[in-house]
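2024-03-11 09:14:02 INFO worker-7 job=invfold-0412 stage=load source=structure_tokens
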């Protein structure tokens, strides 16, 4: 029996309905600023999607575009100005930045209470402490929301997270192991001796490594739950545009998994929805 589709679009729509209620009860209109530097086409698409989500929910959005040759110092000044704007609740720097910029230091400059991406060291550190009431990175938070929405019982289950990035893999592992989720977590990475064996023993597999269709059918035990975080552009001459989007999980995994998130339409919509949720949380906290 093929896997049930873990539909991120439906989960995101459900979350948005709950956010509308919170926004209507908020003392101020939540306000998100998106800062984009350069002319990367994919980045501009992502920014437009975020602005549309804001419009749909009644969140005010400010869109700041800076040319690719902008200096690090100019972006720093823009961030400081946004930090000081009391009408603003969320600041997002769209990745990737031009190669001459130090993205980490710019992230560190954002006021942690306005860091709706959840990448500031202070916010990442709170997850280690089990303090999950603040700004949590949107993608791992979206995965947790999807699993709960699908009524997945994680207690005592073996969960394998493939990938150890600071913004997805590592916080994902911490969230799965946190009180209330209570999974037993293994992190698989490039130095893992037998990644396939680790995945085969898992009840839940979260693939977030950025390698197209790396997780094959023979990596997943029958009945496992698989969440595909990856989104990769791969050449495909059969497509008019010459490429297609592929996740980190091969489509044949649907033959053995019990629940599988699609790419696209899985984690992607949840990442944007959690960005909106973080913006609302920040507005509530600043005006409680």
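2024-03-11 09:14:09 INFO worker-7 stage=emit residues=288
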């Amino acid at each position: 029996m093929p896997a049930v589709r873990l539909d991120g679009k439906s989960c995101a729509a459900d979350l948005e309905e709950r956010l509308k209620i919170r926004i209507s009860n908020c003392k101020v209109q939540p306000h998100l600023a998106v800062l984009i530097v350069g002319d990367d086409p994919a980045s501009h698409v992502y920014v437009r999607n975020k602005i549309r989500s804001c419009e749909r929910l009644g969140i005010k959005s400010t869109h700041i575009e800076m040319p690719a040759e902008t200096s690090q110092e100019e972006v720093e000044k823009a961030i400081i100005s946004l930090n000081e704007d009391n009408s603003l609740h969320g600041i997002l720097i769209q990745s990737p930045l031009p190669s001459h910029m130090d993205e980490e230091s710019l992230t560190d400059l954002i006021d942690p209470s306005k860091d709706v991406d959840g990448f500031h060291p202070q916010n990442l550190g709170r997850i280690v402490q089990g303090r999950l009431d603040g700004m949590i990175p949107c993608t791992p938070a979206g995965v947790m929301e999807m699993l709960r929405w699908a009524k997945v019982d994680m207690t005592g289950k073996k969960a394998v997270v493939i990938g150890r990035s600071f913004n997805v893999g590592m916080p994902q592992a911490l969230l799965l192991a946190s009180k209330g989720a209570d999974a037993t977590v293994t992190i698989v990475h490039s130095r893992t001796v037998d990644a396939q064996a680790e995945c085969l023993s898992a009840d839940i597999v979260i693939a977030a490594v950025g390698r197209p269709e790396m997780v094959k059918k023979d990596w997943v035990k029958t009945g496992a739950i698989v969440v595909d975080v990856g989104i990769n552009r791969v050449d495909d001459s059969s497509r008019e545009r010459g490429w297609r989007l592929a996740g980190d999980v091969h489509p044949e995994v649907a033959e053995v998994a019990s629940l599988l998130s699609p790419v696209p339409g899985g984690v992607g919509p949840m990442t944007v929805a959690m960005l909106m949720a973080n913006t609302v949380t920040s507005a509530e906290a600043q005006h409680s």
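2024-03-11 09:14:09 INFO worker-7 stage=report msg="The domain at 29-114 is CATH 3.40.50.10860 (Rossmann fold)."
2024-03-11 09:14:10 INFO worker-7 job finished
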